[in-house]
Amino acid sequence: MSRQPADANEEEIRRKVKAELRKRMRSVRGALPVSACEARSAEIAKRVIALERFQLANTILVFSSIRREVRTQAIMQAAWTAGKRVALPRVVENDLHLHWISVDTELVEGSFGVSEPPEDVARISPEDVDFALVPALAVDLRGYRIGYGGGYYDRLLPLLENAQSCALAFDFQLIAEVPELPIDVPVDVVVTDQRVFEAS
What is the total count of domains within the chain? Predict the structure, then answer.
């Protein structure tokens, strides 16, 4: 019986550890009271809005918050108030398509119960995004993150050629090191309710 190469074995171990961390962090975050989620999200929004790259950006990519994810509505509202364009992703098979949204856009329930723009709303090219918000279940100081396991943002991030990518997470979601895989793509900046740092 042949053995797998050492690097393949290590990759499998990393996948298992990552899956366990994903499960654990979903449980921890799920226990966060709604009031704490709202308060911490407000702190994160203040930090994001104060970022120079956010202030200079013309087009912001946001995400629709689900369950106890960081709330992004205040950031969207600040962007609209400042005259910026806002885009939201829609899941299409294995990819994320980006669509313009306004205050009046009526979102629909899409894949995984996430609110998405309707299919007929105008699309935006990833190259047009200046600043991109990315969800995270866990993230480390290098900018590597653990998502829900679909790899959607790891496929999208390389296409955002002109954007600074920014992961949003509560401070307790910071971990020492994400067991990254070859397909994983780190973000540029991480914002929590207690700190802002550039990935290193």
Answer: 1
